[in-house]
Amino acid sequence: MSPRRTQDRARRTREALVSSARRLFAERGYAGVSAEEIVAAAGLTRGALHHHFGDKKELFRAVLEQVETELVARVGEAIGTAADSWQAATAGLAAFLDICEEPEVLQIALRDAPAVLGWAAWREIEAAHGLGLIKAGLQQAMDEHVLTAQPVDVLAHLVLSAVNEAALLIAHAPDRGAARAEAERAIVALLAGLRVTPLSRGGGDGAGRAPTGGSRSSSGRTG
Length: 223
What we know:
Elements: H1 3-28, H2 35-42, H3 46-52, H4 56-80, H5 85-100, H6 103-117, H7 119-143, H8 152-172, H9 176-192
Helix pairs in contact: 1-2, 1-4, 1-6, 4-5, 4-6, 4-7, 5-7, 5-8, 5-9, 6-7, 6-8, 7-8, 8-9
């Protein structure tokens, strides 16, 4: 078999394992799925899992990386339609919190990931995927004199921590819709405190309020 065909076969095997694991982890959680079930769903053997990932935990890490990559891309799309850097910040926050209410993201990224990988590893993965987007948005807002000048690296880490904590609060709240609305309002208020020109009390441009959709109940989410 040629090297290219070998590489293609390996790629397809990895994709099959990640796809099957992602579906099962989302449905039943990490602890509720065995390695044997994953390889059976993928139509492969336990040896394939060991060869490509080593164990179930490392396969879970690959699933999480895929989920995080897609999440950041979706947030980036929401930001790309904004008219200015402030709207980009609030639209990005709204999109992130919307996505974090989806059952798959709730289960894999917010419930299982910290427990399976440990807090340090989970936060490292979150930072690897989301920090650059946050830093770029903050820098743009400072360059446009929307936000006061701050050490952007430090501020980006603080904002990332805030939105991650908000996502965790929502994931474990008895009323996720109410928790989401409260978390969004709080983070928007924190960011508004950094504005060069304070928002009017009524939020005349609409940016002082939680973006549309912030009070939606989790029961109205779409997967």
